[in-house]
Structures are given as structure tokens and as C-alpha cells.
Amino acid sequence: MTHRNDNHPLVLVVEDEPLVRLDVTLALVDAGFAVVEVSDAEQAMDLLASRHSISLVFTDVELAGRMNGLELAHEIKERWPHIPVVVTSGRVEEAGEDADLFIPKPYDTDTVISQARVLAA
After folding, report:
1. Taking the complete model, does pTM exceed 0.85, yes or no?
2. Residue limits of the Response regulatory domain (predicted)?
3. DSSP 75-107
4. Radius of gyration of the chain (CA)
5. Across-strand partners of 64?
6. Could you tell me which residue, 3 or 88, shows the higher pLDDT?
């Protein structure tokens, strides 16, 4: 689902938990971002390949499907090194070398927004 905010940075949210995805999506939209949301890494890769306007990817580590969020971050950095990646998790304590930022869960949406503003600029 896409939440448009024309002329604002486009954030791709990758989260398989619907309520968590909705919460961060609404916070980003309220802060003025355009948001497209998906539930797995495969959908994220498809969107990244077809939409060249994505300014930031925000992904959970644990995702449904064949690829987790750390693998997604690696693929993004291989194919689109200019796109910043924020990784979040409640079980992993670091995001590895492919993430630009790690935010542990539970996170404060104000932290997500402030970091998104810096990274998507």
C-alpha cells in the first residue's frame, strides 16, 4: 500500500507484523513522508527495482519469506548503494555492515522520524 505525500521523501517500510507496520507507516506519514509498505523482502526488492524514487528503506530483521531483513539490506547495498537502510529488531542487537542505522525494538516513533529525516535528506 502506498501513502502519497508528493514532493516528500519516499520511505519503503518492510515489516511482516501488520500492526507494527501500520504504526510506523502512520508516524512517517504524519511527519510528512510518503510511504510504501510491504510485508516481505521479495516485495521490497520488486518495488526497489521498479521505483527509482525510494529515499530510504526501513526494515525489520525477521521477515516472512526466503530473505530476512539483514539479507535485504545486503542486497540493497549491492544494487542500490545510494539508498540508506535502517534495520530494526527486538531480537538482534546489531544490524551488520550493510545497514546505515540499527534501531532496537521496541522503538520510539519520534526516534524513527528524526533518523529518517537525516538519512532521507
Report:
1. yes
2. 10-120
3. HHHHH-TTS-EEEEESS-S---TT-SEEEESS-
4. 13
5. 40
6. 88
